[in-house]
């Protein structure tokens, strides 16, 4: 009876891993083919592929483990470490969901900084478009504010994120081009904010000026921490909704970005 129960559990586990693996593999593959190559897409692709291989070659793998006890021990340790990592990832997702800022009403601002998030064939990605839409809402209410669009040249692109962002705001919202300032050298959040300081200074604004930093909902916490570390004293973060199709990939990327940012002392 015990053996039958174990066999049923093993079969159900393999079915679950196959379905999960297929979802993760296709999710990562589709986004990678769209040129979104980062840990948030590569890792699901790799984990999904591993699950599929494990299920397909399950019996051969089990036979090899039974013949090599040392390999079996490493295999068990690997699964234990993966389980701990998964628990930490889920805990981070819960934390991110609970702590995400959602400011929508702000007072008068001197400048709006829109952080980059990638472009696709010269056009803002859905995540970046959501940030720009949020920024445009504020800019239309406060036409006196400068808009700093921040982002450098992405791999495989012919124009910078800043150029694409500026074009989007002008085409979709008819915002005044003279009020849009382009920071087109940065490749990270820390550089987005650091390089934007030079533009603020050039327009007689210092770090005490009222600044609205627009980014994705999941990214507001880290962006705010970096801004404080860099000396921004009077800012508010505005969160744009992350499209569901890439939301959890973005959260996964943010998981690693949190730790790398801490190691690099960005905040």
Topology diagram in text:
Layout: H1 2-33, H2 39-56, H3 58-67, H4 69-99, E1 111-115, E2 119-120, E3 123-124, H5 126-141, E4 146-150, H6 161-173, E5 180-183, H7 189-202, E6 211-216, H8 220-229, E7 235-240, H9 244-263
Parallel strand pairs: 1-4, 1-6, 4-5, 6-7
Antiparallel strand pairs: 2-3
Report the β-strand fraction as a percent range.
5-15%
What Rg, in angstroms, do the CA atoms define? 23 Å
Question: How many strands?
Answer: 7
Task: Give helix and strand order, one letter per element, not per position.
Answer: HHHHEEEHEHEHEHEH
Backbone shape:
elongated
Instruction: Calculate the terminal CA-CA distance, rounded to whole Å.
Output: 56 Å
Walk me through what this model shows.
By secondary structure, this protein is of the alpha/beta class. It is elongated. Helix 5 crosses helix 6. Helices cover 61% and strands 11% of the residues.
Task: Explain briefly what this protein structure is.
The protein is built from 9 helices and 7 strands; from the N terminus they run ααααβββαβαβαβαβα.
What are the main properties of this structure?
267 residues; alpha/beta; two-stranded antiparallel ribbon; 9 helices
